[in-house]
Amino acid sequence: MPAIRNRIRELRAAREITQQQLADEVGVTRQTVIAMEQDKYSPSLETAFKVAMALGVTLEQCFQYEPRAKR
Amino acid sequence: MALSYREKTLYASLAAELLVYCPYFFFHQQNSVNKVAGMIAIIIALQFLLQGVIAIFTRNRVTDERDRLIELRGYRAGYLTIAALMVFGLAMLWFHATVGNLRMDNGRMGLHFLSVFFGMLVIADIAKTATQIVSYRRAL
Question: Which SS3 state, helix, strand or coil, does residue B65 take?
Answer without folding.
Answer: helix
